[in-house]
Amino acid sequence: MREYKLSVVGLGHRGRFMFKQFCRCLPGVVGVAACDLRPELFYEDSHGAGGDNPAMAKLFPDAVFYDDFDAMLDKAQPDIVLVETPARCHAEFCAKALARNIHVYSDIPSVASSAEADMLWDAQKRSQALLMTGATTCGYGFVLKLQELWRQGLLGKPYQLEAEYIHDCRYLWKETPWRLPSADKPGPISYCTHSLGPLLSILDEDLRSVVCVDTGSHISGEPYAHDAQIALYQTPSNVVVRQTCSFITHGPQGHSYKVYGTKGYFERLNKRGPIPEQVLFKSTDEPWNDQLQAIAVGTKPDSLDAMLPKDLQGSLGHGGADEYLAFTFINALRNGAKQAPIDLRAGLRMTLPGIFAGESARLGGKPVEITYPWDK
């Protein structure tokens, strides 16, 4: 079995966790290097949102720490780099790795602007390496079930889709200051991939126009701290997608989705206090099911346990979605695939609409056209 040398840039709790899980769960993946501007994130034990964990230097004594990304790529010569930097600075790191034909597993969102999208799109076209978009929610078990039902034709053509991402992130502002609202940062609607990724995976068309409005700051009173933003997207064939995103809230936390199709309906409701999460489905191709039926599927992919060693089955990221996507990526590399399972185009399809939605909100809800690098 071929060995893959793994590196990571960005040693927040997410970067440390993903590096550890890639090395623990994926046979033949060896951690060789880590990069951050803060060496203490490598050499010291960590305490925070990611829990209490031993230092990376203890867990991976053979891995080398770098405070310069270019130096890490050139000296460690990894086969794969995990890009786990703050949300608005992924593209440059990805492009530098691709320029050296190093495979990339990038956290989301893929880019922070249309200009970055053009730059990264060109970098991918010139590279022999693969870029995998680490869109966590696309690895959830219920999303894989949605895709299966759609492929089977049981939903027909989706024409109205909805997603809500509700997560009070104020407790994370100190540890991850990139989340702290300010004039030079976009509103929550730009963090759209968790919502749009699953829905776009069953849509053949790109989103082409958007109208977005926001609530302003009612809860905290802090400038630019929008309680919520709501976007309406549309495709050329008049498919409508509604996205609601709130990071300052007292409401129930998590992801909910609805898909209305010409032959069926699918809904995933996040848990509400004592009410557990639910996945509901009906289809005109199953006339005996004239009422919504509950489906026994959660966040953990059904096939994941067979992939994991037994001692790792209880220590999973995002219910197992992180590990599932990591497996699909490494398997694609081992099988000589020419395209990552969730490639850059998929990443930009789920990232760019939120950037244009933010522009619409700044314009007071005016319609804005959505464009992509492949339009040029």
TrEMBL record:
Write out the transmembrane intervals: none
Q: Where is the GFO/IDH/MocA-like oxidoreductase domain?
A: 144-266
Asked if the Swiss-Prot or TrEMBL record annotates the protein with the keyword Oxidoreductase, the reply is yes
Q: Which domain of life is it from?
A: Bacteria
Q: Which PROSITE patterns match?
A: PROKAR_LIPOPROTEIN (PS51257)
Ranges for domain Gfo/Idh/MocA-like oxidoreductase N-terminal come to 62-134
Q: Which Pfam families match?
A: GFO_IDH_MocA, GFO_IDH_MocA_C3
Q: Which UniProt keywords apply?
A: Oxidoreductase
Q: Annotated Gene Ontology MF terms?
A: nucleotide binding; oxidoreductase activity
PANTHER family in the cross-refs: CONSERVED EXPRESSED OXIDOREDUCTASE (EUROFUNG) (PTHR43708), CONSERVED EXPRESSED OXIDOREDUCTASE (EUROFUNG)-RELATED (PTHR43708:SF5)
State the similarity comment.
Belongs to the Gfo/Idh/MocA family.
Q: What is the name of the protein in this document?
A: Dehydrogenase
